[in-house]
Amino acid sequence: MSPHVLAARYIAFAVLATLANLATQRLVFTGAGTMPQLEPILVYCTAVAAGTLTGLLLKYVLDKRWIFHDRTQGLQAHGRQFTLYVLMGVATTAIFWGTETLFWLVWHSQVAREAGAAIGLSIGYVVKYRLDRKFVFRQQGWSTAP
């Protein structure tokens, strides 16, 4: 696969995962709007966590199959690989959450929060690709970068 095709796929999958993340957050915020007794910080943390989980699962499935062409099978192998994938995402998630939260705290609007999330996710995905290539899917021997 050419570096351009790889980059295009990775970007497309990052966009899909970002949209899934933000859509999940909106669902949580919308549902919480019907329960005004909930603390705003609890709603915010729940929305961010639910969105992160949704985006993470979608991105893992897409990356595994279409970016790294990994054919690992078996529950133990998948468990190990997904655990590494999640661990590589800890630092990148901190970038994403930090940027999203900063935008929300500064501008107090959903549009700003989502812009911060998109910026943070973009930076995080570039870092994550490099970590995944080196530590999670290393047996594939990828040497190109998006």
TrEMBL record:
Using the record's annotation, list all stretches that form the GtrA/DPMS transmembrane domain.
9-137
Q: Where are the transmembrane segments?
A: 7-29, 41-62, 82-105, 111-131
Per the database entry, which stretches of residues form a coiled coil?
A: none
Q: Which Pfam families match?
A: GtrA_DPMS_TM
Its annotated compartments are: Membrane
Q: Does the keyword Transmembrane helix apply?
A: yes
> Which keywords are on file for this protein?
Membrane, Transmembrane, Transmembrane helix
Main localization of the protein described in the UniProt heading:
membrane
Membrane topology, record value: Multi-pass membrane protein
Q: What is this protein called?
A: GtrA family protein
Organism of origin is: Novosphingobium album
